[in-house]
Amino acid sequence: MHIYDFGNSFLDPRKRMEGTNERCRQGYGGKTEEEGSEEDWREKLKKWDEEMERIRRENRRESERLQEERLRKRRIQKKLWEKLALKKYLARQDEIMQMNEKISLERATGEDVYIEKAPLSKSLSVAEIMAICSEL
């Protein structure tokens, strides 16, 4: 059995390790450690610090924007609940008034009375919801 060497370094583990070690010794931009100066590293660190500060500012602005959006949604939800509670209260008061009116008419006439007045709605209409959302 013959092993043929086609000049490929991947066949010889020693050559493969030499290439890996050489790449590891090289710094950013293909320079070896001896070639990279302290000033270059300071400049790179300064750029990285500036980039990190820019990212922090962006993150802070985004988190503030999200907080404002959450507060806005909470205010809208509170207004909707208040408006719905008011409508339910008014509808219940209207039902009570209609019932009292019916009872008093039945007592006065001595017969059963039917009132054709539609009860107030207990739910919010689309227009009311849109108006509340557009306010805030």
Would you list the SSEs in sequence order as H and E? HHH
- How many E strands? 0
Radius of gyration, in Å, reads 40 Å
Structural class: mainly alpha
Arithmetic mean of pLDDT:
82
Helices, by number, come to 3
Give the overall silhouette: rod-shaped
Specify the biggest β-sheet: none
Helix content: 55-70%
Distance between the termini: 84 Å
Low-confidence stretches: none
Oligomer: single chain
Strand content: under 5%
Structural description of this entry:
- The chain has helices at 13-25, 38-109, 126-135.
- The chain is mainly alpha-helical and 136 residues long.
- The longest helix has 72 residues, at 38-109.
- The radius of gyration is 40 Å and the shape is rod-shaped.
What is the gist of this entry?
The chain has three helices and no strands.
Task: List its traits.
70% helix, rod-shaped, single chain, 136 residues, mainly alpha
Give the SSE layout.
Layout: H1 13-25, H2 38-109, H3 126-135
